[in-house]
Prior knowledge:
Blueprint: E1 2-4, H1 31-45, H2 68-81, H3 111-130, H4 141-156, H5 158-163, E2 170-173, H6 177-184, H7 201-213, E3 223-229, E4 235-241, E5 253-258, H8 268-277, E6 282-288, H9 301-304, H10 319-332, E7 338-343, H11 345-357, E8 366-369, H12 375-385, H13 387-402, H14 427-439, H15 446-455, E9 468-473, H16 481-488, E10 497-502, E11 511-512, E12 518-519, H17 520-542
Parallel strand pairs: 5-6, 5-7, 7-8, 8-9, 9-10
Antiparallel strand pairs: 1-2, 2-10, 3-4, 4-6, 11-12
Amino acid sequence: QVFVEPSAKQGRTAELGVSDQHPLNFFCETQASRCVAKAMSKTSNRLLEPNGAQQNVAVPAIFCKERLPLQFLCLLGLALSFSGKLSVPEYLNNFTYSSIEPPVINSPFPVWLNCLLVALLLLSALFEATRFPRLASQATTAACLRTMLQVVGDLLLIPWRILSPGEVPVLGYQQTPTNLEILACCPALSTFKQAAWLHNALVAFVVLMWRDNVGVDKFRKNVRRENVHAPDGGVIGLDWWEEEQKPSVKVERVLFIASTLTGDAVVSTIRDMCQHFSPRGWRCVVMVKRGCGLTIKNTQPCIARPDLKPSLPWCFSGFDDIELAINHVVASCPGLPVCGLGLSCGAGQLRNYVNRLGSDSKLSAAVIVDAAPAWEPALKSLDERCPLVAFFLSEAIRMTYEECGVATRDVPEEALCGGKEEPPPGPVLKFVRDHMAPAHGFERSLAGASEYLRWCQPAHVTGCAIPVLEMVSFNDTLIEAEVCKDLQRLWEASPHVITATTRQGTHMIRYEGFLHLRCWLRVVAAEFLEAALQSSKASSSQS
Length: 543
């Protein structure tokens, strides 16, 4: 067995030049500023001899280029600590009203104290932005303040991260011929560099929500929704991605995508996958759970026809529905190999399917992205660490259950089995206790919710019998760093599993580039699945 560690990171240092020309001329009225200007003037006059020859002049230590960060902190602190009036140049008077007074900056503290405070804040922000593992909590006031410092530090480090090299993902795998052959065909796994301005998980989440909700209607024309009816009357949505392809592209394989918590084929992460795989000869189909669908809702029949008995809502396990969907896709595409790709919640369900069926799985290979190994501890941790994120996720789940005909009004404490419970659960666990667990036959209590989540527990990885790539980031936020370490060691239990772990990136977001963002996940997934199919084909031909 072998565990490949990342190579040592290399850094680069960029020299910053400061221009002495500025359109606004600010005049400082203090004696200290005049002394500094006079000293700098005398120094600059002695730099050149009368004959033009350069003269070596001793440079004060603080002005050395090796102390560039200290110079930046001093200049910033000095600028914030000036207490005089700032005069406006004459040529700007035409653009101002005479009744408006020039801005006045008054500082109640001495200059040296202001510089010290600014320096401490900046150092704290840089520390929070560079520490490992990063803070992933907003549960307390102190955690919120540290999160704000982390955001500031990530913004300050953008220029440095633009120039710094990418990281080498940590790969874990058993040294079998199949694994070595697959990894030899996956050059994208050798390096990864997150977009410099998307290192912060909160900023990346805002960008993800923007891409999920803005300008998505133009992609609906590429999706054909097919409804698959379950035995209990529920409907599973299959979104077939039917983007216009080049005539030379021949469909040779099928990609089955298990969608995110409430997603469909139009959300940004999934459509990035479809847009990348389709031109490579893949036919992409996305499974949409009961009641889910961010843009194209999978509303259940009982909503349109109240006389029908409501079917079961979707479940964290989802085994029966995902097995039904995969069997239907395999029957719809005879003779074509089918591979799986799971994202977030869908990744946990796909992992359960692959490990539970083993060699009976209809998939030839699979990629699992950002899925916790167990539902109960993951949801409890999310409620405790990130209550605001947990609230939004619980509201998203609530809307999907309403599309399934389940009444989701708040349940009074008196209606719980056993009465009021202390301590009260967080937003997600409370919804599981009040609605998800009772809808699937468990009692309405914390004990019933725990029993339900254990029932949804994915099967162990020892049952895996096909090539599987598990991808996770230590900056996931929804998954704790300690849990990421457990996922990093999954390869030890199965020779079919390869793990790829990164420090950069966040939950379902691995974007490279700067303005033109490129999804690194889709490149890695395509290389891995195509290599796994090629290896399987070569093994079949030899046998």
